[in-house]
Design goal:
The chain is mostly beta strands. It contains 2 helices and 29 strands. The strands form 7 sheets. Strands 1-2-29-28-27 form a 5-stranded antiparallel sheet, with no helix packed on it. Strands 3-4-5-6 form a 4-stranded antiparallel sheet, with no helix packed on it. It has a 4-stranded antiparallel sheet with strand order 7-8-9-10, with no helix packed on it. It is globular, with a radius of gyration of 18 Å.
């Protein structure tokens, strides 16, 4: 498929899958899925040849995310006894990628979007109707709790210096990520409703999704530098996932409903087309380190697409 100046081709489909993410330095793929025995498992693949290099049973994992070069962050569905005790709590586990042992366990009350710092040392947890919590990934200690009426997207800058969080009421807050507990450095109106955000891979620039537009914000000045008008499909389906290409020239979005994947040219600040319409909810989109592969993961499969200039 050709879209704008890009050619998008399916390389591999891995199923079943509940979620997937690129790990280590973006050169490996981790897939979470239901196992044949009715439980759950993780499987680690080298991207070169997609060779399986590790597998381990886990609890009812619902989401996976990179946490530094040596670890992965899991969101774990509570067991039957835990659900009966408190239906709101979720367990977050930081696991070593070498042997999948649990390094840290964090218990959160109904977490929303979650982000790990680039070095994997801290975990930011948003709450749809409450605070933004910052946790020490090594000790499991709560470092700070920023009071709010509802925080959606959270993201760390590429260098770990800044943390951005978008509140549902529309404010994009920029924090000094090295000083948890302090007030925001700056804020900017970024549109109410959808609250997903993503940081540029090289610069202190944030993409903040809204119902009618994606705002591009300079996090150093809290100034909006561009506004990408969303199409009807993004407005109706709501953007649930976003990812910058490693060179920062392309932004990929995925809607919460229908799995519509859109491409946006950031140099021209314009929409260039819908690459995929998978007709199913997606659990994430992201690029590998070189930017040659796009991972589109759903609750059924992990699909790898090659992205080349047409």
């Amino acid at each position: 498929m050709k879209i704008g100046g890009y050619k998008v081709e399916l390389v591999k489909r891995l199923e079943p899958s509940l979620g997937a993410t690129f790990v280590r330095r973006g050169d490996a793929l981790l897939v979470a899925r239901e196992a044949e025995d009715g439980g759950y498992e993780l499987e680690l693949f080298e991207l070169d040849g997609l060779k399986s290099i590790g597998r381990a049973p886990v609890e009812g994992v619902t989401a996976v995310a990179r946490a530094g070069e040596q670890a992965v962050l899991l969101t774990v569905r509570p067991g039957r006894q835990e659900r009966s005790a408190n239906r709101r709590e979720r367990k977050l586990e930081v696991r070593d990628l070498k042997d999948f042992r649990v390094l840290t366990t964090i218990v959160e009350d109904k977490p929303g979007y979650i982000a790990a710092s680039p070095d994997g040392s801290r975990i930011a947890v948003a709450h749809d109707f409450g605070a933004l919590n910052i946790w020490d990934a090594g000790t499991g200690k709560l470092l700070s709790e920023y009071a709010s009426k509802g925080v959606g997207g959270v993201a760390y800058s590429h260098d770990g210096a800044l943390l951005a969080a978008k509140e549902f009421r529309g404010e994009l807050k920029i924090f000094d990520a090295t000083k948890p507990g302090e007030k925001p450095l700056r804020s900017v109106a970024a549109g109410s409703g959808e609250a997903l955000i993503a940081f540029h891979p090289r610069e202190h620039i944030v993409a903040a999704a809204g119902k009618n537009a994606i705002k591009i914000v300079d996090a150093n000045t809290a100034k909006a530098t561009a506004s990408l008008k969303t199409t009807k499909k993004e407005s109706q389906g709501a953007i649930g996932h976003m990812a910058f290409s490693p060179d920062g020239k392309l932004l990929v979005t995925a809607t919460l409903s229908d799995g519509v994947v859109g491409f946006w040219d950031l140099e021209e600040a314009e929409f260039i087309g819908h690459a995929l319409e998978l007709k199913e909810p997606l659990s994430g989109v992201e690029f590998d380190a070189p930017g040659k592969l796009l991972l589109v993961s759903s609750f059924e499969a992990a699909e790898l697409y090659s992205i080349t200039k047409a």
